[in-house]
Specification:
391 residues; alpha/beta; Spore Coat Polysaccharide Biosynthesis Protein SpsA, Chain A; nine-stranded mixed β-sheet; globular; binds 2-acetamido-2-deoxy-beta-D-glucopyranose; binds magnesium ion; binds guanosine-5'-triphosphate; 14 helices
């Protein structure tokens, strides 16, 4: 025991001396290069000792975890596009994530080997990272940690006031009203993920959540599609937000947007009623394929900062979905927004399932009659009407 502790301390000191990085630099250390032709058992032993050094340091709170496994040599054909998958999740979500990745691998990544970035507010453990890496069909696979100051209420939030307002939402039975971790997640996805150092090398991302499933073949590189067609924001399912979670979001957003010069061919009609109020439509954010540079733009960042100052991520329970949606519909041209209706996609309880010819040619495995688009609580008809100038 003493010996183990001694080795840990030595390892930790060695790391700090060797890396020389300060807390806020967050530079990824040397990647682990996956040797192509070695026996798997040997690779796993080396991988685990590489991971362990980093996990030990991160769990001791001495540095944020930042680990990269270079499996590009394993890709059958690597996508030349500047994009990556992004997954924010916890260590205990490994198995539902593996199922999700299996469906992505079957339907998509066996043809287009992309990179992956996994983020967590706590350090990922060796068990999680090894499990993920062994599943991968290749690519650059990175695991990062979220800086403390980006996860949790900022200093100007009055915590007593926030707790009081939270109780009022709980009394109204509002979905996730009592969850602070959900609030942290929504704020992070609204204003910080695109600034993470592990994402700074990329332009496009595809957001995945543990537990979602893909049911149809996707035979083209989605990042190439985004680039060639000048798309900046893509979604699958769109629906109505719970009004009580965003009581003041629309007014605050409208005031801010009224000072901006918006593109004339924007998509505000997707979110705004004739009387100027919010119709509650939003893109469901467990799926998102988008241009990180849109979020990195000074305009989006200023919008987020304004919302963050107002405090509604904690005083109310603003979702990242209405925030991204209000931003995209106001700040982008409608031609830059895209509905991926060809994706067979499930995030419980809602399913998008292509119909007719698409169902057949993409060999879908979902029930087309259970398609959310047909349910009457989808915003897709409004989206279609606006895209086709029918309104
Ligand atoms: N690391 C980490 N990940 C989180 C945390 N909260 C949420 N996430 C991730 O973000 C995803 C979205 O959060 P959920 O709680 O599932 O939110 P949701 O999809 O709106 O709600 P559900 O209907 O419950 O799935 C989850 O799948 C998690 O992977 C957190 O506190 N830490
Ligand atoms: C990828 O995109 C990012 C963000 O736009 C950019 O900074 C970077 O130079 C791009 N990389 C390549 C290889 O084009
Ligand atoms: Mg979820």
């Amino acid at each position: 025991m003493l010996f183990v502790a001694f080795c840990l301390v030595l390892g930790v000191l060695g790391h700090v001396v060797a890396s020389g990085f300060t807390d806020d630099e967050l530079v990824p250390l040397m990647p682990f290069i996956w040797p192509k032709d070695e026996p798997l058992e040997a690779i796993v032993i080396d991988l685990e000792s590489y991971l362990e050094q980093h996990v030990t340091v991160a769990q001791a709170g001495l540095d944020l975890l930042s680990v990269t496994v270079d499996q590009t040599a394993v890709c059958e054909s690597r996508s030349p596009e500047n994009g990556t998958f992004v997954v924010l999740c916890r260590n205990d979500e490994l198995y539902s994530l593996l199922e999700t990745m299996q469906s992505i691998k079957d339907r998509y990544t066996h043809q287009f080997c992309h990179d992956w970035v996994f983020l967590n507010d706590e350090p990922f453990d060796e068990y999680f990272m090894t499990g993920i890496v062994l599943q991968m069909p290749g690519g650059m696979i990175s695991f990062g940690q979220i800086p403390k100051e980006q996860w949790g209420p900022p200093s100007w939030i009055d915590l007593a006031e926030a707790a009081k307002k939270q109780q009022a939402l709980v009394a109204k039975n509002v979905y996730k009203a009592d969850s602070n971790s959900y609030r942290n997640m929504c704020r992070y996805y609204s204003g910080f993920f695109y600034k993470h150092p592990l994402l700074s090398a990329y332009k496009y991302y595809w957001r995945l959540e543990p537990g979602v499933k893909y049911y149809c073949d996707i035979d083209y590189d989605v990042f190439r599609f985004m680039r060639e067609n000048d798309k900046k924001y893509g979604f699958t399912i769109s629906l109505f937000e719970y009004r009580d979670t965003i009581t003041s979001l629309w007014e605050i957003s409208k005031q801010w947007m009224s000072r901006m010069s918006l593109p004339l061919d924007n998509m505000v009609g997707f979110v705004e009623n004739a009387d100027g109020s919010y119709n509650l439509c939003h893109f469901w954010l467990n799926f998102e394929i988008a241009d990180l540079d849109f979020f990195r733009s000074p305009q989006y960042q200023a919008y987020f900062d304004h919302l963050d100052r107002a405090g509604g991520f904690y005083y109310e329970r603003w979702g990242d979905a209405p925030v991204h949606t209000i931003a995209a519909t106001h700040l982008l041209a409608k031609s830059e927004i895209w509905w991926f209706r060809d994706m067979g996609y499930l995030h419980s309880p809602y399913l998008q399932c292509p119909q007719g010819k698409a169902f057949l040619s993409q060999r879908c495995a979902c029930n087309p009659e259970a398609d959310f688009t047909l349910s009457g609580i989808s915003c897709a008809p409004l989206y279609e009407a606006i895209q086709n100038d029918l309104l």
